[in-house]
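Hey all, quick one. A colleague (J.T.) asked me to put the FE2/S2 (inorganic) cluster job into the tracker so the inputs and the structure tokens live in one place instead of scattered across chat threads. No bug as far as I know, just bookkeeping. Sequence used:
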Amino acid sequence: MSETTIERDRTAQRPNGIGADAPRKEDDRLLRGDGRFTDDVDPARALHMAVGRCPFPHARILAVDVSAASELEGVRQILVGADVARRSEPISVLRPVPGAPPLPFYALAQDVAVFEGQPIVSVVATSRAIAEDAVELIEIDYDPLPHVSDTIGALEPDAPVLHPGVLSSNLLATNPQGAGEPEERMAQADVVVEDRFHINRVTGLPMETRAIVAQWRPGARELTVHHSTQVPHLVRKQLAESLRMVEGEIRVIAGDVGGGFGLKLGVYPEDVLACLHAIDLRQPVKWVEDRLEHFRATTHARESVHDFRIGATADGRILAMTNTYTTDLGGLNSPFGSAQLSTIVFTGPYKVEDGYVERRVAITNKTPIGAYRGYGQPEVNFARERLIDRLARRVGKDPLELRRQNMLRPEDLPFRNPGGGLYDSGDYLATLELVVDAVDYDGLRRAGRGPRPDGRLVGVGLTSFVERTGYASAKFLANRGSQFGAHESVTLRANRSGGIDLYTGTPTFGQSSETAFAQVCASVIGIDFHAIRVHAGDTGATPLNTGAFASRTMIAAAGALKQASERLRDKALRIAAWRLERDGVEGLAIDGDVVRDPDDPGRSIALAEVFTAAIIGQGIPIGEEPGLEATAHFEPEEAAYAFGSAAAVVAVDPETGDFAIERFVMSHDCGVAVNPLLVEGQVQGALAQGFGAALSEDLTYDPDTGQLVNGTMLDYFVPTAADIPEVELHHTAVPSPVTTFGVRGVGEIGTIPPGAAIANAVCDALAGEGVELTALPVTPERVWRALQQARNRSETS
Amino acid sequence: MSDTVEITVTVNGTVHREQVSVREHAADFLRHTLGLTGTHVGCEQGVCGMCTVLLDGQAVKACLLLAPQLDGHEVETVESLAPGEELDPLQQAFKDAHALQCGFCTPGFLMTATALGREGRALSRDEIRDELAGVLCRCTGYEHIVTAVERYLAETPARERADV
Ligand code: FES
Ligand code: FES
């Protein structure tokens, strides 16, 4: 049984307000099969698009012959690279790598394709089946070119240069960052541990693939796009740029979205293609990505190589950390590109003042990398936490002691780390002590590593981490060239039924924002939670915002919700006071569906009456404007840092390398929880993705052919219900001083600990053999190989 | 291209006579011909379980069946669970346990668990995990889904489930 210590906030002022386990607003429609996902939108006379993709990792396109395909009955239009270059602009980057030149790419490859799966042609026909048949009939003459699939190999001097018009090597950019005097400290260190850590290429694999339905009304000049996206307002901006339109002509509607995880941030080539076809054909065009396309054409994530180094005194005090890491960009710069957050949290929760970190971005002939839950934080955590354990062994201390010795204390915060992050507040050690107690660390240590009667060796692995959630100000983002801000917005509008319509550009993709937003409004206004109706994700109806990613939604939205709620509430109370013939609003409060008079509890006025008076402008105070709505935008002053610790207990078979995770305990601090049950759900879900990436998920490219070898649902192993270890969750709740209500982001933290905790546990079990794992995922085969290596080493030495 | 056949199929109690393409799978037929979009598609390879429906009471993956194979059979989809205002007890258990996030996988789990409930077997938590392993979820981490199904099976007597 999953055990949880999340306490329900007894102080929640209202039923279903902040701190309550409110029932989800999203649930009823989804449970009844009445959600509205993009493929559920079936306009009359819709046509269907299929895309022809490059089968090679790197190839010159010599000729494209569409003659047979265009004659197929039912085919309406075929676009090739030259059409797209004439009709549209390259797809823009939303979060550029600082210092990187743009690598512009069109929706269809021009002369050269740089990854397997890159779109080459698109066909629209009366059915998807016919469109796919037509793609098969298109003759494309390719000249395969030498390819690079290895991240580090791409930077070797003899590697073929993939974007020779822009760059003279495959190094897109180098971004250094640091503080203090790390090299001097390293020179003074009694002990230096270092290694190279390989992080696997994985993908978020939302259960709903990408999808789009584009409709064009030429007379009205109105392009309506139903889209499976986390960021409808950013998609609108990017589509306007690529299609050479103005934003006012485009309306993007994200209905229900079947999972995003960072993969549905921004425009992909197929989106531009579907719109071009719809505009030309003046008929709706639908494209739903199939799963084979998804594995090749939707962004991958995480692949990187970290050269991490820690210097310490003989008794284990850390003096400096450095990390030079290379992220794999894939063949093109997707809107978010490769992970950028390994830098800012590379020193983790430890007191390190001298440090240096350098990100290098390498271009390879693989599917473009994009954002994925955690965006660099699980990756660097694996490298650092593996080395912390190794340092402990080197100085003869228990890994727990070494962590305690070096961890930042509450009085050290706020703390600017060498990666540039400003830790706002927290008690990091408390989360470590929580898991250590829960897992009975001392008892495990006393019991020893084994072997047990079943021949297995027992190990326990720890990890502690911080997670940046949200963005520091737009100014921080502007310095990095980002094409979006740090704020969120909301519009609240009273209606004549006595309810409130809440409009947000943040769509619904599982993060429960409809529910959490309504909880905040219910708390601030005092209105019944059920009287709030959330309208999400339609750019035609919602205020401009940023979008849902980087665990930033609540961090920024809480402020906007609070401000808009206060404004709407205060005006409603002024009108109520006037109608109740009171002098001022003093003491008046909204309570469910009425405004109550404090002096006469029996006397109240229905909200519907107050709202109606405001809307029609009849019976409101002189000088009060008619109407009752409020829009607020809010930008937090700083990012908030969530934090936590985890412990894994494993039992390893030292002959085969097989291992079982017998316990997994995690503690986390996400500040004030708007809805504890939803917080738990977010952490559990992210943990499952973390377990997948730690244990089984690994997108593998054949080094000779450069092709993806496991790009199907059957060959890429995401965890099932039977694969996830039972998890025990604990939490602390230190309010963040930099956010409204003290919230910290919660969506991603669970992805961070599994890799490090499990690898540390396996290495702890096999400490007698000297096994040190340096790569993910941790599979029985990898453990077995590490055992063989360690044994060979000890034989030869 | 004009390869179609006529089928007669009972879906959620309604008899449909439809002309279907021989190359269309059953999930697409339910979604785009009958408009029952609660049945989802995630892989068309029989792996993800998004398309799970009941065929003559058995949980099957509709993407692995061709529409013509439905001829003469009875299909139940997620839309059949709560015909009125109230959610059915299984749906309510999912809601109470926060067993869904994006909800894309939910119909697959609901139909799998509905079939499980009708079998009337008592199942341990681990057995429930194994039974649900044919449907993937990328959002919830499964814990809450297992809890919802466990509560549903425990709270609803087998007899009552059998007459649904
Ligand atoms: S769509 Fe049928 S199992 Fe995946
Ligand atoms: S709730 Fe999103 S896939 Fe299960």
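Adding what we noticed when we looked at it: The pocket of FE2/S2 (inorganic) cluster (ligand 1) is lined by residues B 41-51, 61, 63 (CB under 6 Å). The radius of gyration of chain B is 16 Å.
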